[in-house]
Amino acid sequence: MTPVIALVGRPNVGKSTLFNQMTRSRDALVADFPGLTRDRKYGEGSYEGQRFIVIDTGGLTGDEQGLDLEMARQSMQAVEEADIVLFLVDGRAGLTAGDELIADSLRRSGKQAHLVVNKTDGQDPDIAASDFYSLGFESTFLIAASHNRGIRSMLEILLPSEEEREEEDRADRYPGIRIGVVGRPNVGKSTLVNRMLGEERVVVYDMPGTTRDSVYIPYERQGSQYTLIDTAGVRRRKNVSEVVEKFSIIKTLQAIDDAHVVILVIDAREGLVDQDLHLIGFVLDAGRSLVIAVNKWDGMDPEDRVRVKEQVQRRLDFLDYADKHYISALHGSGVGVMYESVQACYESAMAKWPTNRLTAILQDAIAQHQPPMVHGRRIKLRYAHQGGSNPPVLVVHGNQVDSLPGAYKRYLENTFRKVLKVTGSPIRFEFKSGENPFAGKVDRLTPRQKVKKDNDEKQGRRPKKKRQKSLKR
């Protein structure tokens, strides 16, 4: 579905200028004259392959009469049509009574509204936006529409990513929480699926390779929708000989991509083997939430149980955020408790956090432990926002982010995981540098500089370098 974005605000705050920048056109008239736009104007734009529709509206004041009242009705009609509402304010004029009236109207409409502080060029953006934080919007964007500054970052946050669009398609096909059950052959995956369903839905036989294809089973439990995905066992590559089994492995990997939460089943009597670690690697590479189920726990000696638990804790120390359950799929012990872990994983993987909160967590982390210095300059991390879900993607903007060491990235991940209480799901970080205002611009020389450069080239002279003054002790 193509998102619809409506631009609303007082007259002469830059709505038409922003409309032209977002649609890359000059369809909307722009002049330093309030009330120039009167009717709704529609335009189409795109960002990173995602199309969207923009609606430019007339200016609102909150006490409209006559013609202004009809313009206000047109603007509120655009708000009703829109999926996203951008409330533009003037960073130079500051907060006005009209802005407060418009903010109240947007809150009553119940629409997803975002505050956009325009005309921040030539001044400190944070100071320009300080008056508007009292309006209480969860997300605030600082832009300069006339210079096309900050618009790309805003669209990156507002528009759904490619992964989110694919997730919407999967949700239409498979309702509810999708749970993939994976593991090596004959570890009890199908038995666990039948136990979770409460009926003999899939074939169970004491022979490896019984399940050939991934089976998607929608069902309901205690008022919640689920889709269980029973998969074929994945063996080591050297042991795979049949063509059918090769296709089964591909189906299993596709099922991992389709799932919200993956339950990895391990045979307690064989212990944790290398192939289990390979499967964990597949799940983490796909960015899916993970629950560890150590099956066939019934009938084991106490000494063997202690040994298996120590092995799991030692070899899966890097998965300290994933819940581990010791179960018996055959008898059902410990199976019902896994639903709590599945629900917590799903909520963490699909959570939405406002930009203000993520930026506050980032600033607190920096205050606790600053980024290192590179070439005599401190790495600066300015703000963070969410770039996707399943897994959660956090985008951090700053300077010299390419030089940020891995240890500091892990520190940020642990900090965000602890504060946001993310369970079972990996967190992916993307670090982006700020837009370079001089990118693509040619260094133009004055006529006098051109003559001097030509003379230097003819005489074979090199450009002079500035001498550094020696420091006296």
Layout of secondary structure:
Blueprint: E1 4-9, H1 15-23, E2 41-47, E3 50-56, H2 67-81, E4 84-90, H3 97-109, E5 113-118, H4 125-129, E6 140-142, H5 151-158, H6 162-173, E7 177-183, H7 189-197, E8 215-221, E9 224-230, H8 243-258, E10 261-267, H9 274-286, E11 289-295, H10 302-315, E12 324-326, H11 338-349, H12 355-368, E13 373-374, E14 377-378, E15 380-388, E16 393-399, H13 406-420, E17 428-433, H14 447-459
Parallel strand pairs: 1-3, 1-4, 4-5, 5-6, 7-9, 7-10, 10-11, 11-12, 16-17
Antiparallel strand pairs: 2-3, 8-9, 13-14, 15-16
Characterize the structure shown.
With 473 residues, the protein is an alpha/beta fold. It has three domains: 4-159, P-loop containing nucleotide triphosphate hydrolases (Rossmann fold, 3-Layer(aba) Sandwich), CATH 3.40.50; 166-349, P-loop containing nucleotide triphosphate hydrolases (Rossmann fold), CATH 3.40.50.300; 355-433, GMP Synthetase, Chain A, domain 3, CATH 3.30.300. Helices cover 36% and strands 21% of the residues. The protein has helices spanning 15-23, 67-81, 97-109, 125-129, 151-158, 162-173, 189-197, 243-258, 274-286, 302-315, 338-349, 355-368, 406-420, 447-459, and strands at 4-9, 41-47, 50-56, 84-90, 113-118, 140-142, 177-183, 215-221, 224-230, 261-267, 289-295, 324-326, 373-374, 377-378, 380-388, 393-399, 428-433. Strands 2-3-1-4-5-6 form a six-stranded mixed β-sheet, sandwiched between helices. Helix 12 (355-368) crosses helix 13 (406-420). The longest helix is centred in the middle third of the chain and has 16 residues, at 243-258. The N and C termini lie far apart (69 Å). The relative contact order is 0.07. Mean pLDDT is 80; it is low at 29-38, 64-68, 203-212, 237-247 and 468-473.
